[in-house]
Design brief:
- With about 220 residues, the chain is of the alpha/beta class.
- Helix content is about 35%, strand content about 20%.
- It has helices spanning about 20-30, 85-100, 120-135, 150-155, 160-165, 165-175, 190-205, and strands spanning about 5-15, 50, 55-60, 65-75, 105-115, 140-145, 180.
- Strands 1, 2, 3, 4, 5, 6 and 7 form a 7-stranded mixed sheet that branches.
- The protein starts with 5 loop residues before the first strand and ends in a 9-residue tail after the last helix.
Length: about 220
């Protein structure tokens, strides 16, 4: 909380290469801070921080109206085409300490493609999140399903999609208390859709009593 009428939330994006992390970060920020394009190799090679403009009158807390600022940290995908797990993890720890070391992390968003099954590469990413955030990682993690347009093209909504999901995915969702959001990164997120996504994230943070995680 930066002052009496404004709240800042700190978010971390984690996911495999080409999962849509950077595009999701741009959707959350309402900008194009992060480089995002099709590539045969990993696009993101270092951690970077993006900060949104002030969103007035976005939420209420203790009866008071608050504006919102969103800080999003984009990270290299893992598995990565040129960086080892240790290099990715070290870069993430250093960036978290630099940018969120004092205020803490509100939520890590595990970015998964909705149009691809959960496989071994995602398991590596989940293990990375566990090691990075520590034993309470489940309280500070939500899933961001990208490529939601592919789900709609298949004639599915969120509920139908999860009804046919693998036990591995369902168990993961259960472990993080069903915190998930579907995002379509193929179109520019309009302002109202962006606010809907951010309201869901704020609800996750509220359910966790506005706690933050200090990553050491």
């Amino acid at each position: 909380m930066s002052d009496t009428d404004e709240m800042t939330i700190n978010l971390l994006l984690v996911g495999r290469t080409q999962s849509g992390k950077s595009a999701s970060g741009n959707s959350l920020l309402g900008s194009f801070d992060f480089d995002s394009h099709l590539s045969p190799s990993s696009v993101t090679t270092c951690c970077s921080l993006g900060c949104s403009c002030r969103i007035s009158g976005f939420t209420r807390r203790n009866g008071h109206e608050l504006a919102l600022r969103v800080h999003v940290m984009d990270t290299p995908g893992y598995p990565h085409s040129s960086l080892s797990k240790e290099e990715v993890q070290q870069a993430m720890r250093a960036a978290l300490a630099q940018h969120f070391g004092n205020e803490g992390l509100h939520l890590a968003l595990l970015v998964l493609r909705a149009d691809l099954p959960l496989c071994e590469e995602e398991n590596h990413t989940i293990q990375l999140v566990q090691e990075l955030l520590g034993p309470t990682w489940k309280n500070f993690t939500a899933i961001l399903f990208t490529h939601a347009d592919k789900v709609e093209e298949a004639g599915l909504n969120g509920d139908k999609y999860l009804n046919i999901a693998s036990d591995t995915l369902l168990n993961l969702l259960s472990s993080i208390q069903q915190r998930y959001i579907f995002v379509d990164n193929q179109v520019n997120t309009i302002q109202e859709e962006r606010k809907t996504i951010l309201r869901k994230i704020m609800e996750f943070i509220r359910q966790n009593s506005y706690q933050v995680l200090l990553v050491k």
